[in-house]
Specification:
By secondary structure, the protein is mainly alpha-helical. The protein is built from 19 helices and 9 strands. A hairpin with a 5-residue loop joins β6 and β7. The protein is elongated. It catalyses: L-histidine = trans-urocanate + NH4(+).
Length: 522
């Protein structure tokens, strides 16, 4: 099994995916263990002093003005976890919780949180045992981090609350820890707060969305090319020199992908009716410009994600300087800050939802064009076998339109909202968790939209008798038929075909079929 080693300088997106989706094991580096111990010395030194230090010897949020006596501090840390584990609604997905916990561990291991090495090791042990805390849909405002979701994870470390075992059954967390030989943690000064205060949930969902969208944008280039071919469109608009004079990187990559798919096609540029076209419709001709803009949006989102992956997000944080010698001759100190605010991540999550909605919208317009006998250049109405007796793909497009309408609703930015909390101490929040949750739904729906375009385009190409599709197109048709998606014919129960097309796109089989012919797409 793959092992991810967590050090002090952050982790990569590949590490997150390996742990969240691939079940990779986690180890702490010797450097991380040393940094954890050094930072803890600073916290212990400050805790022994009479002066109040936020998160160490005070209350939290609007209650930060109260100085907490030493005998109550362990109770304070337990209480913040218990009281903040206040989520409601359905459980979030296992991969989201694993990403959330792993990213919190990443920050803990930075040496800027003051958490003891044994607490960090327990976090790794829980993940390695396949124990997944029960985390609920609602409870994060995306400022002071993803407080409620992270609190539910911390509750599991304490042996409290509920968690899912490796067998998929939800049970008391204490029972699961005992079965795997994991001792519940007894939290000390600052540790409860350090386990809750980060952007880890929204960041994990951003990283997974980017991985999924990378596949979907390439898949959309393929389906756009197939639709162009089915409509007997012109591939001249994909010429590299046209895209070089408007040098957006995503646009050029998208056009190159479409051109690679269409290489050797006998359908492009033909006409089967008496209405010659000078230009194809925007949904066909401008496919690279729209998909390319989305790709460039993804590039910006990756930049933000990479910066966040290299960050230590906590409040307060342990820094060099001050009177303690644990960090060397410069000493160490604990400082409050606002780095937990999720705005940088929330903005790109919302930006991606907008791009996903537009990609779905243009794919739906191409699909509708394939089904309309007045615009499909010789194809039968709704690609039906016997139009009138058969309805063909009429209602498949209804389903696609409903999905696109939902994508547009999901594109409304969550980060444009803010609602004050904690007696106006936390008076501006990012709503980044909400942005991430709706982006996951958007990505899911976009997959279905692209699958329906694939279903319609492959059927339309097979109805173009006497013309030879591109070799890559032929490979797609053969593969999708082998996957259980049936071709032209009389009306039948369509839902199984659509589900099979969705699985074909979602599982990467569409890209695999194309790339056997074209080589890797951009």
């Amino acid at each position: 099994m793959h092992t991810v080693v967590v050090g002090t300088s952050g982790v990569t997106a590949s590490d997150v995916l390996a742990v969240a989706r691939g079940g990779a094991r986690i180890e702490l580096s010797a450097e991380a263990v040393a940094a954890l111990a050094a930072a803890r010395e600073i916290v212990d030194a400050l805790a022994a002093k009479p002066d109040p230090v936020y998160g160490v010897s005070t209350g939290f949020g609007a209650l930060a003005t109260r100085h907490i006596s030493p005998e109550l501090r362990a109770q304070l840390q337990r209480n913040i976890v218990r009281s903040h584990a206040a989520g409601m609604g359905p459980r979030v997905e296992r991969e989201v919780v694993r990403a959330l916990m792993f990213l919190r561990l990443k920050t803990v291991c930075s040496g800027h949180t003051g958490v003891r090495p044994e607490v960090a090791q327990t976090m790794a042990d829980v993940l390695n045992a396949g124990i997944t805390p029960v985390v609920h849909e609602y409870g994060s405002l995306g400022c002071s981090g993803d407080l409620a979701p992270l609190s539910h994870c911390a509750l599991t470390l304490m042996g409290e609350g509920e968690a899912e075992g490796p067998d998929g059954r939800v049970r008391p967390a204490g029972e699961l820890l005992a079965e795997h030989g994991i001792r519940p943690v007894e939290l000390r000064e600052k540790e409860g707060l350090a386990l809750l205060n980060g952007t880890d949930g929204m960041l994990g969902m951003l990283i997974m969305a980017l991985a999924d969208l990378d596949t979907l944008y390439k898949s959309a280039d393929v389906t756009a090319a197939l639709t162009l071919e089915a409509l007997l469109g012109s591939d001249k608009v994909l010429a590299p020199e046209l895209h070089a004079i408007r040098p957006h990187p995503g646009q050029g990559a998208s056009a190159a992908n479409m051109l690679a798919v269409l290489k050797g096609s006998g359908l492009t540029g033909h006409h089967q009716d008496d209405a010659p076209r000078v230009q194809d419709a925007y949904s066909v001709r401008c496919a690279p410009q729209v998909a390319g803009a989305g790709r460039d949006t993804m590039a910006h989102a990756r930049l933000v994600a990479d910066r966040e992956l290299a960050s230590a997000v906590d409040n307060p944080v342990v820094l060099p300087g001050g009177t303690s010698q644990a960090f060397g001759s410069g000493g160490g100190r604990v400082e409050s800050n606002g780095n937990f605010h999720g705005a940088p991540v929330a903005y790109v999550l919302d930006f991606l939802a907008i791009a996903a909605a537009d990609l779905g919208s243009i794919a739906e317009r191409r699909t509708d064009r394939l089904l309309d006998k007045n615009r499909s250049h010789g194809l039968p109405p709704f690609l039906a076998d016997d139009a009138g007796v058969d309805s063909g793909l009429m209602i498949a497009q209804y389903t696609q339109a409903a999905l696109v309408s939902e994508l547009k609703r999901l594109a409304v930015p969550a980060s444009a909202d803010s609602i004050p909390s904690s007696a106006m101490q936390e008076d501006h929040v990012s709503m980044g968790w909400s942005a991430a949750r709706k982006l996951r739904t958007a990505v899911d729906n976009l997959t279905r939209v692209i699958a329906i375009e694939l279903y319609a385009a492959t059927r339309a190409i097979e109805l173009r008798e006497g013309l030879t599709p591109a070799p890559a197109t032929r490979a797609v048709i053969d593969a999708v038929r082998a996957a259980g998606v049936e071709g032209p014919g009389p009306d039948r129960f369509l839902a199984p075909d659509l589900a099979a097309a969705d699985a074909f796109v979602r599982g990467g089989e569409l890209l695999a079929a194309v790339e056997k012919v074209t080589g890797p797409l951009q």
